[in-house]
Amino acid sequence: MRLFRRGASRAGLIAAALVATTLTTSPVGSAAAALSASAFAETADGFASVSALGQNGTTGGTGGSVVTAATAAQLLDYISRPEPLIVQVSGTITLPTGSSDGMHPVASDKTIIGLGGTARLTGGGLHIGLPVSGGVISPPAGAVHNIIIRNLSFDGATDDLINIQMFSHHIWIDHNDFSDGDDGAVDIKRGSDFVTVSWNRFHDHDKTLLLGHDDDNAAQDRGRLRVTYHHNYFDASDQRNPRVRFAEPVHVYNNYYRDNSYGVASAMDAAVVLEGNYFHSVNNPARVDFSGEPGRLVERDNVLVECNHPIEKRGSVVEPRTYYAYTLHRAAEVPTVVPAGAGAGKI
């Protein structure tokens, strides 16, 4: 069972758009039609669903044209356009490195979604956010926002697989496969906010999820970085699953951790609610005494099997339910439910 809110009106709108407004003719038209009924009816949950910062949840390219990218040139053109677009990715696309170290910008109001179960971006990553400026300490008018990335495999990036920064907000990263990036898999930093990372598989990767730039970045990060991580499969992804600074609250629920050096680290007064997760063969499932100032962590109903250390708890945390409603699987169900549903090709 996948925990999504479904909206028939949105499904009808997108299905009509698929028929009427597809801009690129390709041999994957039947796959696109099959995808529309199941994938486009699903809407973001968690923090990405919250109405804030002038954005009513995360809708991506809804209302825009539907296009299909089968080459790097097509993809990079579509994702950089200013208007709303639903960008369908067909097959394997190798992203160029060039002067950007392989990181390619995504403009606001985009849905990037793989067709079928084999859509793949390799050799580079996606960058969501304005250029870095340490002097900007509140969300600028032009902050990148309202982006959905689903049903894709990412690997082999020379930097991050996905990087979110500079007050970007309302981002939904769902049902993807992440492996073999040179740095982070999904890094969220520098004041970004209202993000959900759900139903992804992370494997063959070291520094998985960074949340918060560094110990000196409180001016941008404190009071922001509200992120939900749920139903992800941390399949021997070594560390940072996630590693958190300053954020409150961060909601980590119903994830399956298998063979990791550590699961969650909360530092620099970050505040994490950890519930309904299953940890198997994890050296440190969750820590608050990590580096820099300690963080806070509330845990409930987690299962630990063959772990070397207990979950470290400290302090109190604002409850995620003050922002959104959610339903938990029992932690004992997680080793069955999550591997069966997490990753690309499973929507």
Characterise the protein shown here.
With 347 residues, the protein is mostly beta strands. Helices cover 13% and strands 35% of the residues. The chain has 5 helices and 29 strands. Strands 7, 10, 13, 16, 19, 20, 22, 23, 25, 27 and 29 form an 11-stranded parallel beta sheet that branches. Helix 1 (8-21) runs antiparallel to helix 2 (29-39). The longest helix has 14 residues, at 8-21. Mean pLDDT is 90; it is low at 1-34.
Structural Rg? 19 Å
How would a crystallographer describe the biggest sheet?
A: 11 strands, parallel
* Low-pLDDT windows of residues: 1-34
Structural class by sheet pairing and helices: mainly beta
Strand content is 25-35%
Number of strands: 29
Shape: globular
Q: Helicity level, as a percent range?
A: 10-25%
Summed up, the helix count is 5
User: What is the average per-residue confidence, as pLDDT, rounded to a whole number?
Assistant: 90
| Distance from first to last alpha carbon | 11 Å
Give a quick precis of the structure.
The protein is mainly beta and 347 residues long. It has helices at 8-21, 29-39, 72-80, 218-221, 334-341, and strands spanning 5-6, 42-43, 51-52, 55-56, 65-69, 85-89, 92-94, 103-105, 110-114, 120-122, 125-128, 145-150, 153-155, 162-164, 169-174, 177-179, 186-188, 193-198, 201-203, 210-211, 227-230, 233-235, 243-245, 250-253, 256-267, 271-275, 278-287, 296-300, 303-305.
Task: Provide keyphrases for this structure.
347 residues, mainly beta, eleven-stranded parallel beta sheet, ten-stranded parallel beta sheet, 5 helices, disordered N terminus
